[in-house]
Amino acid sequence: MKNLLPAVALLWVFPHLATAQVAILHIQVIEGEGAINMPGSRVAHPLTVEITDETGKPVEGAAVSFHLPEDGPGGTFSNGLRTDVVLTDARGRASLRTLLVNRAPGRLPIRVVASKEQARAGMVSFQYIAEPKSAAVTEAASKGTPSVSHGKLKWVVLAVLAAGGGIAAGTLAARKSGNAAAAAVTTVPVTTAPSAPAGINIGNPTITVGHP
After folding, report:
1. What's the predicted TM-score (pTM) here?
2. Where does 22-130 sit in CATH, by number?
3. Sequence spans of domains, the chain
4. 54-68, 121-135, 170-184: which has the highest mean pLDDT?
5. Secondary structure letter of residue 57 according to DSSP
6. Is 90 exceeded by the pLDDT of residue 62?
C-alpha cells in the first residue's frame, strides 16, 4: 500500500500541471490605432485588442480594462465613466465600441490593462480628436498662398507688355514713376514700298530725247 502512494500522488499532480495558470500576457492592437474622431462624436473605428499567453495562444475570458485621461483630449464610456471593462472572446479579442469623445482636439491616450488569474499586462494606445471645422478652415486660410497686391500686379502687367515690345509699356512706366516728360512718346510712321504684284516683270526703262 505504501508503494502505491507515490504513484497516486503523481497522477494527481500531472493533471494540475497541465492546467497551470497563465504566467504571461501579451496585448496587441488589432484595429483602431491612430484613428481620428470628430469632436463630440462616438468613435468611428473601435479599438480592438488581442490577448495571448506566452505561447501565442489566445486567452479567452481575460478582463481588459480601458482607461481614459481625466483632462485634455478624452471622453466617457456608455456608463458615464472614464473606465470600462470588456472580457475577451474565444479569439482572445476585446473591443471598445462605446466611447464618446469630448471636444478637446489632440492626441487621445487610451491605457489598456489585461488580467487573467495572476497574470497582468498593460500598454497605451493612441487615437486623435480632430480640430473643429471652424478652426480647421481658419488654419487652412492662414497657411494659404498670399494674394498678389495691386502694386505687384501692375508691375507684372508692365513686364508682360515690355516683353512684347509694346510702346504702351513705356507710357505706363512713365506714369508709374511720375515723370511727365518720359510719358511723351512720339511714334514715327514707317512707310514700306509696296511689293510688285505677282506675275508682272518690270524691264529696263527706255528714255527718248526729242527736239526742243
Report:
1. 0.55
2. 2.60.40.10
3. 22-130, 150-177
4. 54-68
5. -
6. yes
